């Protein structure tokens, strides 16, 4: 297996990589409240020298970029990789691990003995040098000079995958590596806007492990370089939690992963929270199986369905008398289709999960934009389960709609968007749901001050009404 020449790596990226243990609580000190701990988690645990994501070129005046130049070939010739500035930096920094995964031998034995690792051994930080890197800034800029959230979701999944690989690595090149798959992503709430002219940092580590499951928590922070003291108290912009499952690369059965040994009180707290989330996931899965066997049961179902459908019936039967401040769900739909290309695959030959989240977000944003007629502001993405793998060559159809709106708070109305990803195989005349994404958007103060009104969205069919009620109930259960 060939490796990159050192001179090419240095010309491609300036990468600094190191890890250090998270700070211990000194004797006699008490643990701060959980909310404070969560906000400062990764700042205290981040490595001293994070990976810096910078572009090859710092100015558009340096001349045209030659995509075929030898300086850019090594990374692009690695097969089976999704590419972005972040994934390139991560893979270069840990090239020895990933070279092994690029050409895995399924003939090798499985890992003989599980290791015990600390969170600090998997902890990884990335810095986006937006303030000083023109090319990088342009890659992440949206039309309103903010960071493109879809690309950020991609990068979060890429970073989580790298952290999972580091935790599962046994440093034995004779054993076959594990197949790591994104199982789910917990709810992510954007706490403040992310600007593309200010440096941004992502930090993460393994916080909980089960027998074959790994939970990774990542924080995104952004400081104001001009007035660092003003934002010092609240740099946290977003927290993400991903769950990966390990499979044997030969048998494809679940495989055990290395154990986790928390060192600090903070890491122990994260471990306890991970245990609680795992129990909640199992309970939710059991309830889902019971509901599937006995049919969907909605609390107060019949009465709530009739109430929700009443306005929709007027739209269908007496459209001239329908409420002009309302609109049918079906009239808010948008759709996007694409063929999944080899360039979008991950190390294991499947379509990169972050790519799916990116495309779903872009469609959800467009749906909200067309619905309100003003720029929507991203608020949160709800828990995502990756139900079915998506392969190269699959015909992927993304269908979106405004599922319902929440207008109780006039200062912060919420628009709930549903995006369903269908994997369609025309040759087999089959279509099945791969993922369902739920995004929530709101409006800016300027739009609300100018009198922009958000319409109420109503279902026209019982199936739509059930989807709305199930989504509302799920939101209440996890809030």
UniProtKB/TrEMBL annotation:
Keyword terms, alphabetized: Hydrolase, Repeat, Transit peptide
* Gene3D superfamilies, sorted: Hotdog Thioesterase
**Which segments constitute the HotDog ACOT-type domain?**
126-250, 330-447
Domain of life according to the entry: Eukaryota
GO BP: any one term:
acyl-CoA metabolic process
Report the sequence similarity comment from the record. Answer: Belongs to the acyl coenzyme A hydrolase family.
UniProt protein name: HotDog ACOT-type domain-containing protein
